Amino acid sequence: MVDITKPWVVDTPLSEQYPIYTRSNVAEVAPNPATPLMWTCIGGLPGEHEWRRALVEFGAFDLDEFDPDRIEIQGLVHGYLYLNVSIQRIFGVRMPGASPDLIDRTYFGNRHVVRPYDPRPQDSDPKYTERIMASIGRLLSGEGVSGFDDDAAAAARVREERPDLASASERELLERFSTVLDGPYRPVARKHYSLVYESSVATGMLTQALAPLEDPSLEVRLISGYGGVDSAAPSYALWDLSRLVAASPDLTAEFAAGAKGVAERLRSLGTPEADRFLEEFATFQRRFGSRGTDEWEICPQTWETHPELPLGMVDRMRLQPDDRAPGLRAAQLRAEREELEAQVRERLAGTPEALAAFDTAAALVARIMLTRERSKTTAVRLMHEARMAVQELGRRYAAAGHFSRLEDISMVRRDELEALVADPASFRDAVAERRAWYEQLDELDPPFIVDGTPPPVSTWPKKKEPAVEVARSGDILAGLAACPGVVTGPARIVHDPEDAAELQPGEILVARMTDPGWTPLFVSAAAVVVSVGATLSHAAIVSRELGIPCVVGVEHAQKRIADGTILTVDGTAGLVTVA
């Protein structure tokens, strides 16, 4: 019997000098407990090191403000990843135009009561503001958002140069894993962490520039429909595949028989249409196979390893009429944004300084949004190349009976990999215990905010237990505006992208959280409502690119809303009304 009340295998003590943590934002990229291999390779100390360097290079902190022996920017509580709010608040003090209150609103909206910011004398040292202003100057010149295309091209080469992992020795697999992870991945990850802060600068400048107009809906409408957002590209590619299916009676018949096993049936079909679909799907996997659910993990369900996921999305998209093409709605949204920009410029024309501030902020936001998503896509692609090598190890050990499944490789810490390769049988019991422990933690819904000492894990509710009152007719559920537009339709509660077959045209997708493995489902939804997320979360960014009305941060949406409930989603105001 596993005792889950003790700290998880890789838990570390929370910071005493920076005591407030939240699941906001990070729950989207890490919805489940962190496995030991993920935390010791990607998160944990490796991630902390790059994150601290990013903050120092941006000018917001000095390295000696962090405890060298403790992880502080992140937190891990019974396996669940947290982000340090206390550190973000200090960033808000030092950032021109920001504040701790603005940081709180960014992460919590108006839904959570958090202990007020407690100022320290060193927090407001003007030297940090001077350094940040210098970084902002580099951003405005374009210097701070360069080199990302080169990184993306380098990641593509790493993918093309992938060796035959099935024939590699176990030592060669470990070498491939370390070479990619400690080589090209680390600097790209640090750039992405920097862009998290740079994007807050850009959106903060836009908020300030729009303040004289006293219209809170302007900001979300003005950060929509840019085009060229990397994380939305898979949705366009899947849509093209769905048009091949919709145009072919033979392909339609095979998908109608169920997305599971459809690839094998198409191979057996052997028609030119089937061969073309399979060829284009193989190209899709090569370009986008690194994306999936929980993609910062070591053994996630990616589109390369679990092709039934994107094929299920093609199956939903094939039911949509041609006028639901994501490119059409995105073009409309882009035209609306450009028209709105013109209106804002006209309203600010009488104040040249205000107009110049708006033009500068709007241009910077556009560059930053595209670059931020490119950096994340590149980091994930490199991470995927590293983890494919250790997944091959897991596959071998599962086949040999040392593991119960290939994913058990993620239950090993990085410092244990050499010993694992030397004697995999010796890890059988430890891995089995950690797997059982992990599965129990994975059933729990961790607290959204931790201030000091976390509540005992025995008091945490389970994710699937209805712990809240179901919304009734007339109730208005408040969240954060993510993508403008108003849509009415029936709710479809989706707990996993594998449930894609349940989503019908015209339905509103309601989920606890979404990550890149979910977002192509947005094309098949009339609107999206998400419990966990923020204005710059992945769900929000992709919904704005695809033109799908979206409200994020609707607390317990997947529990409060019942399947089939008629909802009106107002993505401009951030409200969901139960009809």
Automatic annotation (TrEMBL):
Gene3D superfamilies named in the record: Phosphohistidine domain
Residue ranges of every copy of the PEP-utilising enzyme mobile domain listed in the record: 504-574
Matching InterPro entries: PEP-util_enz_mobile_dom, PEP_Utilizing_Enz, Phosphohistidine_dom_sf
Pfam family, one: PEP-utilizers
Taxonomy, superkingdom: Bacteria
Entry-linked PANTHER family: PHOSPHOENOLPYRUVATE SYNTHASE-RELATED, PPDK_N DOMAIN-CONTAINING PROTEIN
Record's protein name: Phosphoenolpyruvate-utilizing protein
Organism per entry: Pseudonocardia acidicola
